Design the sequence.
């Protein structure tokens, strides 16, 4: 299981790193972006192993990634989109959307519709996780400024 976790960590890290290079994020943010993506996928994977639904695991993973992305953006003085975009790469339901289109193309409307609904729920949970993480960061940051 440790080998599998390391493989998933490496896949999330390097996959996101490649995506970040393609989208031309600043070089100094590449390692942090890949690290955040690896954390997001590990949270997702561990919660899935613990028995939570895929939707719930995606939500919590994305929320953690959103908070980490905001913190890194503030520390590195870059826009948070650099990290938020990277954080969601490992949990984007690309395969689910592909299977939906494949089923619809073969005329299997019920199966394609079901796969599409599942993919859209994951997309909605990803967006909700980003929103909750952003609101959490704003609340924490606002409290920190008042005390200073």
Sequence:
């Amino acid at each position: 299981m440790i080998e599998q976790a390391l493989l998933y960590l490496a896949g999330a890290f390097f996959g996101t790193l490649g995506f970040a290079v393609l989208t031309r994020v600043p070089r100094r943010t590449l390692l942090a972006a890949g690290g955040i993506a690896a954390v997001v996928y590990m949270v997702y994977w561990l919660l899935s192993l613990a028995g939570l639904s895929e939707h719930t695991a995606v939500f919590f993973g994305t929320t953690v990634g959103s908070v980490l992305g905001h913190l890194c953006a503030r520390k590195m003085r870059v826009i948070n989109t650099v990290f938020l975009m990277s954080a969601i790469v490992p949990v984007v339901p690309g395969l689910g959307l592909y299977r939906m289109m494949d089923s619809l193309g073969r005329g299997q409307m019920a199966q394609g519709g079901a796969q599409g609904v599942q993919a859209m729920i994951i997309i909605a949970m990803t967006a909700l996780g980003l929103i909750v993480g952003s609101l959490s960061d704003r609340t924490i940051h606002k409290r920190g400024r008042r005390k200073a």
Notes: The longest helix spans residues 109-147. The chain has one domain: 2-147.
